[in-house]
């Protein structure tokens, strides 16, 4: 007799329990947020709240949206917001989506054509993977995370194996994130663009950049890393989300290198856009208010304060972790070398690498600090960590308290490890 579905599903969950990788929805019950992606603390900003409530009170349309964009959800408010976003991010076109996941999945499922190839950073977001699975592209290949030589080798091999690439008849889409959400490191965008343009001089290499974790925190007026590097005219498309640093929800795709025909193509072929109810009027208002804070410089002031907090955090915890065995807790090597650190671009995402992420996170949560353990399959095996996200709203007292709590756990684990070694030596 075949096993019941419930038994099969329970067995799958039990397997994850045994590997300590089962995901759960947990209500936060701690006081200091060092976990969320609310980097500028705009979701709790009283000025933004008052600004939003004022807009909400005077808005003609508030609830719902009326249907999908192709039916009754294409309101003047949606169009005005897209035009504002297009102008602010200096793109040729903009198209709203209900989430960054939906936007990425839409793009990669329908834009690459038969014969085209997708090359992606091995740490690219799951939404891109979902899009690639539904894509008609010839194949999808990964290159080593942030490794320019790996990208060069793959593109060079593809050009030799697929003559139509060299002839410009087929295309290569290169998918990267400007700031990666688990490691907190930055893509070498300029080097990537140089390689793509050098190996594919006919212009059939298209770099697509996910700026989900960079929007609001970097670049002039928070326009992201692509803008800070001045490479807007070299990037094919850019994903911008509103649910992280901007304290709202939803996303949009900014089109740069081609005419607005890509926007029209997505309207006709992106199934999540076609068959999903449009962004609510309330969300449109919320995004507009956050955009006001980008335009008027408020977000830039918060970002500047955030970078000071990040620098202080690293300068305080680094010397303490230098004397800590890496088998207990360590910062990534790029953060441990103070002299190699680029202080003009610090990430609010700081991984505390540890083989015991759940015990460390539980200890910190018990003391009032909200952090999350990150384990396989979210990160590769052997790279488990507690993910720390700093915010503009965090105080120096909170930072010092968190570091003290972390080091207290580290010292306790160090003593336990030394005790085990002493017992082993006697035996």
Keywords:
Aspartate Aminotransferase, domain 1; Aspartate Aminotransferase, domain 2; three-stranded antiparallel beta sheet; 427 residues; globular; 16 helices; 12 strands; 2 domains; alpha/beta
Short description:
The chain is an alpha/beta fold and 427 residues long.
What does this structure look like?
There is one protein chain. The protein has helices spanning 5-18, 46-58, 76-88, 100-110, 126-133, 148-161, 163-166, 189-199, 225-229, 261-269, 271-274, 281-295, 298-322, 333-336, 357-366, 396-426, and strands at 32-33, 93-97, 117-121, 139-143, 172-177, 205-210, 237-241, 251-255, 349-353, 369-370, 372-374, 385-389. The strands form 3 sheets. The protein has a 7-stranded mixed sheet with strand order 2-8-7-6-5-3-4. The chain has a 3-stranded antiparallel sheet with strand order 9-12-11, covered by helices on one side. Helix 2 (46-58) packs across helix 12, helix 3 runs parallel beside helix 12 (281-295) and helix 6 packs parallel to helix 8 (189-199). The N and C termini lie far apart (52 Å). The chain has 427 residues and is an alpha/beta fold. It has 16 helices and 12 strands. The protein folds into 2 domains: 23-39 and 299-426, Aspartate Aminotransferase, domain 1 (Alpha-Beta Complex); 58-295, Aspartate Aminotransferase, domain 2. Pfam families: Aminotran_1_2 (PF00155). Belongs to the class-II pyridoxal-phosphate-dependent aminotransferase family. BioF subfamily. GO terms for molecular function: pyridoxal phosphate binding; transferase activity. Keywords: Pyridoxal phosphate, Transferase. Residues 31-404 form the Aminotransferase class I/classII large domain.
